[in-house]
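User: quick one
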Amino acid sequence: AQRVTQPEKLLSVFKGAPVELKCNYSYSGSPELFWYVQYSRQRLQLLLRHISRESIKGFTADLNKGETSFHLKKPFAQEEDSAMYYCALSGGNTDKLIFGTGTRLQVFP
Amino acid sequence: GAGVSQSPSNKVTEKGKDVELRCDPISGHTALYWYRQSLGQGLEFLIYFQGNSAPDKSGLPSDRFSAERTGGSVSTLTIQRTQQEDSAVYLCASSINRGGQPQHFGDGTRLSIL
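Assistant: Done. Structure below.
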């Protein structure tokens, strides 16, 4: 079955601390993995995708096929990173997104 | 417009009524998706359009739900005989085509069934 698991509903850190938002997936083929972010009162927007292998706003995510993980990391969290983060995968004939349940990141000053 | 536009932004209706939700995708985007975001359920896929065709309707929860797309552009999601469990935020997304291109989301329609 296709599934995305984000085990943490809430992650709270202080500004400057490292952050890791966990994401594990289950998929029979070769999926595309994404991280989407929703800031307060804003629409859901793409943060990064695994095929780009780029860093956005200091965030990176590496696809680990052996562990079927795509954890999101940032070495030094900022207050403006506070948001809801969703891990998602797509694949097959339609590229529909299968989302995890999301992790709320709170960064305290 | 510059982004995906959805209307209305909020809809409150009585149980049993029909509702129509509208999505205007980014110009030129051939792929269009509807998702539902409800408390405790997260974001769920409903239906996918490529042009005016809907090759994947697997996420529609019941036959009370239907959607169409005309002119390869605007899409309407219709819910008939609404139930309280239909209360959710309905999100529309579009992408330039298939092939793993990122999806761009609208602000959603918050639907509340009394």
